[in-house]
Predict the structure.
Amino acid sequence: MDQKKIKDLVDEALELNESLFLINLVISENNKIQVTVDGDNGVPLSECIRISRNVEHNLDREEEDFSLEVTTPDIAHPLTEKRQYIKNINRILKVKTAEESFEGTLTNADEDKIVLQWKAREPKPIGKGKVTVEKTATIEYKNIKEAKVKIVF
């Protein structure tokens, strides 16, 4: 299968809804095409169907047999695109860097970095006991090894 042709067909379908964006495109050796898309406001099933049809109707099964799957990323998959971070502002993220791990509310995401905030209990500077303090971490995308949205019930 021609990966460029399939990517072009997916991009063509995504152009009709600017809130959608491609996360991943994988074509296995046995021509199983897996397309993962996300959206700034989620992805309705009708959009997955529309993207699937745009790809399928422009490929010839007589020429080359294939299977096609258009999905959205599940909650267990890490965030990979900057737009996913922006979409998840005000949600709790677990972020790992090479040096440490953070868990906090994503308060900002721009072109270069994200900002997490959380509360922590620390010993009082004077006397016994602990005090709650507000912590902030600014992390550049290039330093993020993995970031996942924490599911809160």
